[in-house]
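input
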Amino acid sequence: MAAQASYSESAGTRRKKGGSLVLPLGVFALFLLVAGVFVAYALWPTWPGKSADAHAPALPVTVAGALFEVPPAAIRTALQRHPGPHERVDLAFLWPSLQPAQPGSLEDDANDADKSAALPAKAAMADTAGRIFATITPLGSLLPPDERLRYVYPRYAEAQARPGPDGLAILPFRAGTPYEGQDLVYFADQPDRFFTLCTRDSGVMTGTCIYERLVGAADFSLRFPRDWLKDWNSVLSGLNQLMARLHPQQN
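output
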């Protein structure tokens, strides 16, 4: 009987000790839960609010600290249609009017994308032949365009350039280099005035040129058909006008 009483007393003691641990463990678990919720809230990506209407006035947009005034109708991705900092902005403009190329509503954008995907390759290219595409990204670790012209491109180019249209020179890149299949096209008398990297025509794919300009720490690149180089002075004038509209602070 004494042994049974002793056993009961011991079991009761253990229950009291176990019970005394429940409250601290519960408090600790609650603390972990609150801390987890706070960390998740702090680290959860914040998405922009409602996209701006395509007919809204130009949006103040910054990329790598450089300020641009961008018409929402020119922004190709709906999620990018908001003011404030961006990691990247993709734009499209009609040529030669330089008006925003996007339709008037986001629903029309989606419908046009579906239609473009269904077009044959040649028809799709014809649909974009009168457009110029712009991309604004941080320059990051890349060398500025003018430094690439002086120190990088000559290392991979052929020894001799051939004449191009209207005073341009065309310098092919060697096979096996990072720029294989491309040409450096520049104004022969003054390369700093105009130079661009261009792909070559290949089957149904027409050549495309990329013209870059540094705006603060942002890299502003414009893409257009290589055929336009036949009147490159007009192209350069249009590119300058477009830059002045999007980044008027440079003037």
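quick obs: Residues 59-250 form one domain.
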